[in-house]
Every structure is written in structure tokens, then in C-alpha cells.
Amino acid sequence: MSSRDKILKSINRHLVPAAPLPDMDQAWIQFDNPTEQFLTMLSAVGGRGEVVANLQAVSAKLHEEPFYDDAKQICSLVPNLDISADKQVDLNAIEDPHDLADIDFAIVPGEFAVAENGAIWVTDAQVKHKALYFIAQHVVIVVHASDILHNMHEAYPRTGLNTEAFQQTPHFGVFISGPSKTADIEQSLVIGAHGARSLRVFLVEESFDRAQFK
Amino acid sequence: MAGHAQLADKFVANEERAQWHDKSLWFVRHKRDNISHSIPEWETLRETASQVKLHTVAHLAQYLEEFETNAKKLGVTVHWASNAAEHNEIVLSILQEHNVKRVVKSKSMLTEECHLNPHLEAAGMEVVDTDLGERIVQLRKEPPSHIVLPAIHIKKEEVGEVFHEHLGTEAGASDPGYLTEAARQHLRENFLAADAGITGVNFGIASTGGIVVCTNEGNADLGTALPNLHIACMGIEKLIPSPDHLSLYTRLLARSATGQPITTYTSHFHGPKPGGEMHIVLVDNGRSDILGSDDFRRSLSCIRCGACMNTCPVYRRSGGHSYQSTVPGPIGSILGPSQNAKEHSSLPFACSLCGSCTDVCPVKIDLHHQLLTWRKEIYVRGLLPFSKTFPMKVMSKVFQRPGLYAFGGKVARKALRLMPRWMIYNPLNGWGRQRDLPEAPKESFRDLYKKRKK
Q1: What DSSP element (H or E) covers B447?
Q2: Which residues of chain B lie closer than 8 angstroms to A152, CB-CB?
Q3: In this complex, do A20 and B55 lie within 8 Å of one another by their Cβ atoms?
Q4: Whole-number mean pLDDT of chain B?
Q5: Which residues of B touch A167 (CB under 8 A)?
Q6: Chain centroid to CA A117: how far?
Q7: Which chain A residue lies closest to B263 (C-alpha atoms)?
Q8: Is residue A2 part of a domain?
Q9: CB-based contact (8 Å) between A10 and chain B?
């Protein structure tokens, strides 16, 4: 007998009392001002966020970033960001994700943000190498200001994980909440373990077309 | 095999260190309290999460098959392993088929439980644990002492020594920021050089065939985004029915574990990366037996947050290694005997039955009740040591003879008052080793009762 059958048989030989699935539609936490809550949580987990008027403002703000102008390689999936051609890395031209090892900044779109925990949902749907999210020294995420949800119960339906589209083709999605961190040495919090040393989030008020993203 | 008490002796011998350990974990427990109190529906979350787990376990075979079907649709190869040895063989053979020399692993208690590393190393592979705490204990050649904070028992000066020896950091350096940066550089080299990435699984989703892995460091992500081969090792109890239920567990897990609102990276893998390969190994290793036990079934609900250890007064003061079990603390003291009652027979007796673990458990496992049940079970199975069974037999005989009991009490009351200290606190009096006996009263309860009746 295969191990598969052995395990299933071993499970089925036990009579386990039935237990109904609970109702997931309950009064989950809501916030008076989800944007403010999101920004508070993001800063609590070591990230930095702000509301800006439009994509042009993102560009201006990035130039105020201490490391930004020193960066040698920037991979931006957000268009029109005023990045000099010798710094811009075209993700689609890269075959092997190992070649992303020296990326200083990744500037990527996020689908939506969650107020209760400062998390942002990003996927590999329009991103050739998901490694970009984790290998870049600094990560910047741009989210539409109106795409802020209250809690995780609103978030999961928005991920589309349960839809045909997600299940037909392999897909990857991740909630990112703050920069990479660890507290494994005497519980001292250190930012910048393996992934991003910093996470900056822009909540853009002016509506923009997601399809513009490469 | 030495029992928990003997092993804990070694840990508490260094009182300063034992107190430091206690405080470190209490700090984490405190953070958990603060953040759980900030969620008004915390108890509803726990109750709902508990019900979902009970439901899933009651339909486990059906959900496993659903999970397998959906994972296959995504291009994942699904393997089944009845026990640890089979799991190790499967992982090794996948790696060998791909000529893998170097593997990066993100923290996985299941692969610890199966002792995967030595198995792969014996076959000539290099396995690097990439969670910082895991890497520290790996370099020290010891097992993790906590499931979420693997190096919680190690001081920063000791990390400095290990890193000086292995990573070439400055001698005497102990700054966590400096040491973490050194580990970052060292592990990046390993991520870039790896041929395959192995991860554990926090949650498997039956309706999609996807898996969720939670880390703060991003090690599971870097470890799987670079190489083309991803092997995920998953205990069969990690299943949940659908993504909607993830909302419960992603809210509970990090808050209970470290007092964070959510882990930094909560990654949802649905199939291999483009051009890559993904394998999921479903592991039983005793879990289906626990499923059959009305007493211990609920222990399968565990989401491995570690909250029960952080709050446990015994764990905090005796250190994780004294449990000699991959999962230590209260939940480990239930799972350990479930896997091997003889080997782990002393663990349920470490418990003080204070019930704090049950209070903090995010999925409402009745931990201290199960620990009490295990004590009975261990007696029934004849696994109690003579030092515990013999006095119980003697006392049983005494309790059956009221005259003898009264006489014994009289003698004891007198003796305890008259005998010199060294005669009372002898090696036979284990209880009196760390505490004084109460002062013996002049009269027994029986005498007092008789007097009052007059």
C-alpha cells in the first residue's frame, strides 16, 4: 500500500466527532480612519508611509531619501519616476533572478493595504521575478490611497486566491508589513535581516491606471 | 534517558542565567498581552479559529485529497510520508535527482522533528539554516530551544564568539546590529549559491492547493525565489479549508508569538516559480494516531506560535533543552509523549498545572487538561518510575487503614518537631530539597473535630 493510502486509511479508521465550520461573517474590527491606522501600524513595524497627491510627488519624495541618489541600480515598475537611464534596471530584460543581487531600490506597485497590521499585498502577476521584493536593499511600494482595507477578513477576498484565475496558473502573493527584521540575538530588534533594509510606502491620492505598471 | 527534572537541574544551577532566560520570555509574553488586548474581538477570533481547526481535523482525509488535487493543478508534485525516515528519503531523492549540492532551509520544526539535516549531510550535501536564530544554533551544533525564538537561550557575547569563529567577525564583538549585519552578508552568499530551497509550511489551503509561510526575515522568500527547486515539508495537520480562514490565523499567529500585528512576510505559494519546480511533502509521523484520541486530538490544532512556552513558568525557568523534544514547553509536553510515551514520560510531570498556557493559546487547546490526562495515562501504561509508584502504593495502603493513618500522623507530627534538620532533609525527601516543610501542628484535624463536637 502506498504511503498516501496508508495515511488516508489511518485517518479514516478513526471516528472523529463532527464539528461545523463557523460563520466567518462576523463583526470584525473597523477603524474611523483606516489611512491613519495603516500609517501608525506601518511605522510601528519599522516602515515609513505617507499620503501623496500623485505619482510625480512620489518621484520628488524619493529624491529626498538619503540613499536614493547614491543608488547605482534601481528597478522601478512604476512609470514616470525620473530615474536616470544608467541606473534603471529593466526587470523584463533579466533572465536569471541572481542578477538582481545588486539592486539598491525596488519600486513596486501594491494592490491594497490593510489598516489593522500595516501589511500590503503584492503579487508576481506583473512582476517577472518575485525575488525583486526580497533581494533589493530598499523597497518602495506605491498603493492607491483608496485601496486601504480595515482588516484581514476584508483582505483575503481581495487577494483573489480563491478565484479560478489564481488557481489555473502558478502564482505568488505576499503580505509585506515593514522591512525585513529579526530579534534573534537577545531579543534586540534589528532591521535588515535578509530582505529590505527599509520599506517606504506611498499612498497615492490621484487615481492611476494599474495597467501602466510594467 | 534523563528526565526533565534532571536536565532542568543543569539549567537552574546557573541562577543568574535562569533568571535572565525567564525575563527574556516574560518580555515576549508581555508584548503578546499588549497586542492581543488591542483587538476587541480577540476571544471571538480564538473561538472561531479553534472551531475551524476542529472541523478540518474531523474531515482531514477529505481536505487532504482536495489539497492534493488542487496543488497538482498548480503544477506541484505532492508526496506522502508516513514517518520521519520516509520524509527524509523523499527529500533526499528529490535533491539527488536535481544534483543539488547546496540547500538553504528556512525554519521548519517538521524537518527538525524528522532530523533532516544530518540525513542530507550524510549524503554529502551542505544544508544552511537561514533563520538567524536557527543559524546560530546550527553553528553551535545544538538543537533550537524554542520553536519561534530558536536561540533565546544564547547570550549575545556567545553569538559573538560563534560568529568570530565561523564568520570572521571581530573578537569580542557582541552588538546585535553588527552581528546581524555579518549574518546578512554570510547568508546572502548562501542564498545566491543555493541549488534548492526547503521551507516548512505554516498553513496549507485545501481549496487552492497553496501554502503559506510566515517569516520576519524574508528567508523563506529569498531561499525559494532564487533557486529553481522548492521543497515544502508540511505536517498533515497544517491544513485549513479555504483562504478566508487564513484571515483568522494570520491575525492570531504573530500576535501570539511575538506581539507583532502580523509577520513581516506572509507568503502565499501557489505552484512553482516560472521555469522552476515545487514539491510538497505531506508528513504523518504519528499525527493520524493523535487524531484517533479523544483526549489529545485538540493538540493537532496547534499553529506553533510558542505563546504557551513564553507564558509557562516551568519552561521559562528550565530552558527549552531540558525538554529534549523538538517542540518544548506545554504543547511539546503533550506532543512528545504522543510520539513516544516512554521516552518523554517525565514531561507532563514538569507542569505546575497553573493553566496559563490554556489561557493564552490562540486556538484554545486545553493544554493543562491534556497534561493532567497524560499523567494518568503514563501511570496506566506503567511508565512511572519506582520513586513515584512506590510511595503511592504505600500511601494507598495507609489510607485504607484509619488506625494506621492516625498513628502515622501522630508519629510524624512529633518527629517533625523533635528531629534535627539533617534527619528530615535527607535524600529521600525530594520535596524538601528546595523548600521547607510546613511546621507540624500539635493536633490533628481529627482531634480538633472531636473537641468541637463535645
Answers
A1: helix B445-453
A2: 246-247, 250-251, 262
A3: yes
A4: 96
A5: 70, 73-74, 208-209, 270
A6: 12
A7: A177
A8: no
A9: yes
Burial tier of A211 (Cβ tally within 10 Å: 0-12, 13-18, 19+): exposed
pLDDT tens across the length of chain A (214 residues) = 899 999 999 999 999 999 999 999 999 999 999 999 999 999 999 999 999 999 999 999 999 888 898 999 999 999 888 888 899 999 999 999 999 999 999 999 999 999 999 999 999 988 999 999 999 999 999 999 999 999 999 999 999 998 887 777 889 999 999 999 999 999 999 999 999 999 999 999 998 766 565 4
Across the interface, whether the CB atoms of A7 and B292 are under 8 A apart is answered no
Residue A151 lies in a domain: yes
Closest CA to B267 of B258, B256, B259, B278: B278
Domains of chain B by start residue, with CATH: 39-285 (3.40.50.10420), 394-453 (no CATH)
Domain count, chain A: 1
Most distant CA pair in chain B, distance: 93
Q: What is the pLDDT of residues B322-364, one digit of tens each?
A: 999 999 999 999 999 999 999 999 999 999 999 999 999 999 9
Q: How many CB pairs under 8 A join A and B?
A: 259
B24 touches chain A (CB under 8 A): yes
* ipTM here: 0.97
- In a domain, residue A88? The reply is yes
B274 pLDDT above the threshold of 60: yes
Domain range enclosing A167: 30-212
Nearest-CA distance from A209 to chain B in Å? 25
Is position A9 within any domain? no
Q: State how far residue B260 is from chain A, nearest Cα, in angstroms.
A: 8
Residues in B 162-221 with any Cβ partner in A closer than 8 A: 176-177, 179-181, 183-184, 187-188, 191-192, 205, 207-210, 216-219, 221
Torsion sign across C-alpha atoms A56, A61, A64, A65: negative
Mapped onto helix, strand or coil, the DSSP state of residue A212 is helix
Asked if A158 reaches chain B (Cβ–Cβ under 8 Å), the answer is no
A134 contacts in B (CB within 8 Å)? Answer: 218, 221-222, 225, 265
* Separation CA B193–CA B228 (nearest Å): 12
pLDDT of residue A210: 64
Distance CA B121, CA B144 (A): 18
A101: domain CATH number? 3.40.50.10420
